[in-house]
Amino acid sequence: MPSALAVADTPENSAERSSGLERRLTQRQLTMMTIGGAIGVGLFLGSSLTIRLAGPGVILSYLISAVVALIVAYAIAEMAVVHPVAGSFGVYAQTYLNEWSGFAVRVTYAFVQILAIGAEVTAVAIYFSVWFPTVPQWVWVVGVSAGLVSINAMRVGNFGEFEYWFAIIKVVTIVAFIVVGLGLIFGIGRAHAIGFSNLTAHGGLLPNGLKGVWLAMSLTLTSYMGVEILGVTAGEASQPEKTIPRAMRSVTLRLILFYVLSITVMLAMTPWDRMGSGLTGSPFVLAFATAGIPYAAGILNLVVITAALSSANTNLYLTSRTLFSLAHDGYVPRALGGLGGNGVPYVALIVSTAGMVAAILLAIFAPGRAFLLLYGVAVAGMFFVWMIILSAHLAFRRSLGKARVARLPIRLTLSPYSQIVALISLGVIAIGTFYVDGLQYSVLSFIPFLLVITGFYWIVRRRNRSELMDGPSPQDRNSG
Length: 480
Fold this sequence. Notes:
Blueprint lengths: L4 H4 L2 H7 L9 H12 L2 H4 L2 H8 L3 H25 L6 H8 L2 H30 L8 H16 L3 H31 L22 H15 L5 H4 L7 H30 L13 H9 L4 H33 L17 H6 L2 H12 L4 H37 L10 H16 L9 H21 L11 H6 L1
Helix pairs in contact: 3-10, 3-13, 3-15, 5-11, 6-11, 6-13, 6-18, 6-19, 7-8, 7-18, 8-9, 8-15, 8-17, 8-18, 8-20, 9-15, 9-17, 10-13, 10-15, 14-15, 18-19, 18-20
């Protein structure tokens, strides 16, 4: 594939390739959208599964996963600064690897995000069942889905502002949880400090050994999956050469601190073997309820509902923009690339609600396993997406050369060793899914999916591209 884009690209040229999307997202909106997308059910609900697998050792799982996530995040940021376009890492893969990988990574990402939307709205229903156990889950799923579609139909600047405040609630809550939890641990305002004995008193720090840490990483890693949002939003970012590096630097440190500190505090407050029993509510809510703080559990349950809504809201945005990108490269019907008067791809948005429909059906016919079914299928897809991103970044670095890499406003250190370590880690973690209850078939189910989309790719490639899209081919556009 041509590499001229790496040399001739400018923010102005990239803006033209955004194909009508409005550049209205500011740095603070990008930052909070990324944090909001990454902090969701993986932390608030999925952590109950990781705690069951690793006990207090899950802290180590989150730390190791954070390193991998950092590498991926900085790889995306580098490429997004040079190519701030709609489709982000799909365009990068197409430019620096091959056309198939550019197609496959975007289709997979859209598919994963659609499933993630279903998992998020299902999580909301689980949280509501804490208060209203007799109300069917599908009622909440339907109501939440309608609201999220309405929000995504707003002009992107308004959507970004709405999501900014949505995510702020999450951040403030996690900070408050950490502060209050540390107060309880150290005995501030209490006769007796809780201390850290719960981390070692129930089988030790590693009750299930290093194997438990390894298996838990199949889920803790997915908790950080959302850092790639900066790449997807690059096509609508204001001054991307400035806003993307600043947003990435502030996001990564905050995410690591939020995850590691909040999990450590939660496990110190409540014995791990009392929190990893299943998906019946958030372990954060249980931790405050166990501590006996009046009304705290109810307030936190409301907040984790907001957190899941925020993540689903962002995922719906990501899916619609990914489908929009595929339409403009001629891989899906061009109607998906159409924009409304306010710059929103409405048709792509409607198609993106498929995950919500799946969640409604699962909530009706399999409410007890709905979350894990949706969440598990998405895991293998995201492993594939991150592997493609890292592979594309290796080729991107080779294409730019040392001189231009040195001038980038944000750079990944220890390249190419960082990417290689991350790729090996992803492979090892993916193997671990075969031993996690509920995830055993995640990788196996992804193989036929990849074969199907590969077949679809070759069918589309044989067709007359001019009938599927307006404008030049992806090759012409990438070289211009």
